[in-house]
Amino acid sequence: MGEVFDRLWEKAGKNKVPLTGAFELLPTCNLSCKMCYVRKDMAEVKAAGGLLPTEFWLDIARQAMEGGLLLPLLTGGEPFLRQDIQTLIAKMQEMGLQISINSNGTLIDEAMAKWLGKHCPTRINITLYGASEDTYEALCGDGDAYNRVRRAVDWLKQNNVPVKFNTSITQYNMHDLDEIILYAKSQGSPIQVATYMFPPVRRDGNMVGQNDRMTPDQAARAKVRADWLQQEPAWFRAQAKRFSRFVPVTEEMLLHQAQQAPSELRCRAGRCSFWVDWQGNLGNCGMNTMFKSSLREHSFTEAWQEITEKTEKLRYSAVCTNCPNYWLCHACAAMVANETGSLDGRPEYLCQVSELSAKYYQEYAKLLPEVSADLNDVQIKSHICDL
């Protein structure tokens, strides 16, 4: 199945088919996470024109489906705050779309879980913010959310709804990392650990290069710790080997890098994936606000063509993408823009995280058992390909 999807993604990207897209249904949320990049209260939403109606989202989904959409993601804010969420899910499924949903899980009660069991999405991605009421209170402003999300997971599992976990690690919950991963394992669900928090420039344009997030050292420690807890020894050993090649960057190197050609986008954004923000603007990425096209003024086909053409011409940060360590940190255009305020900058926060990660990978690798005689480079490379 993996090979089939790989070919599908490759073909979609080559032919500019919008195979997947995020529908940001609203920016409001019942939690107040300190590092959130999008959250607004209802007063701000009303001042900006209010939320778009059910019919708008269903019409855009239909237009996008006719253009090739198969895998929409319903996100926010918190999607389950919308009174029409069941209608949106059911109607999109009737179109033949394979829906995924991002949620904090706290608003999914037993009745909603039963309904989802009958209108089963491809999966629900639930973000875990801690392993205790105290941590949820510190990070999200709601201690009881911890209990509500645990109950929601139980109900979803009872109704055979596929659950994948995400977690966003900050200084407020980094002490819970081990327990969060252990909980995901106990539920038999995968978990994706994010230790990089984007500067919330969508929420506040003055926040370039800033967020209420971990220091580079804390982020590096958490990144390596998460891999240590989740990955097989052979994978971790291969990753440590890769990071052992980290090259300290000098001023002379930076000058040389800046003179090289900038890079085109190296991801699916604007090639086979898109993002529709809560105000109905189509963009190539939810974190890249450099250009967008209004779907209230243009058809999806017109807007998608505009976005793909602009994405194809986009170039970013020669100093970053020609860095000898780029293959370790993979800083994207959105990261560069949010960290530096332009496409030409150097995201020093990420540079520091990569350098410190190299240090911690080596420290953890020393704890691994000796390599057996039959573990060869072919086996190691097979793990590298999974990165």
User: What percent of the residues sit in helical stretches (DSSP H or I)?
Assistant: 40-55%
* Poorly predicted sequence stretches spanning 5 or more consecutive residues: 373-387
**Estimated radius of gyration:** 21 Å
Beta fraction of the residues?
5-15%
Averaging pLDDT over every residue, what do you get? Answer: 94
Q: What is the ordering of alpha helices and beta strands?
A: HEHHEHEHEHHEHEHHHEEEEHEHHHHH
Question: Order of strands across the widest beta sheet?
Answer: 6-5-4-3-2-1-8-9-10
Overall, the morphology is globular
Please tally the β strands and state the result: 11
Main β sheet profile = 9 strands, mixed
* Distance from first to last alpha carbon: 18 Å
| Main structural class | alpha/beta
Quickly count the helices: 17
Could you describe the 3D structure shown?
There is one protein chain. The protein is α/β, with parallel strands linked by helices. It has helices spanning 2-15, 42-47, 54-66, 85-94, 110-118, 133-140, 145-158, 177-186, 216-230, 233-243, 251-258, 300-313, 318-321, 326-329, 333-340, 348-365, 377-384; strands at 20-24, 71-75, 100-103, 123-128, 163-168, 191-194, 263-264, 273-276, 281-283, 293-294, 315-316. The strands form 2 sheets. The chain has a 9-stranded mixed β-sheet with strand order 6-5-4-3-2-1-8-9-10, with helices on one face. Strands 7-11 form a two-stranded antiparallel sheet. Helix 5 (110-118) packs parallel to helix 7 (145-158), helix 9 packs across helix 16 (348-365) and helix 10 (233-243) packs across helix 16 (348-365). The radius of gyration is 21 Å and the shape is globular. Residues 373-387 have low confidence and may be disordered.
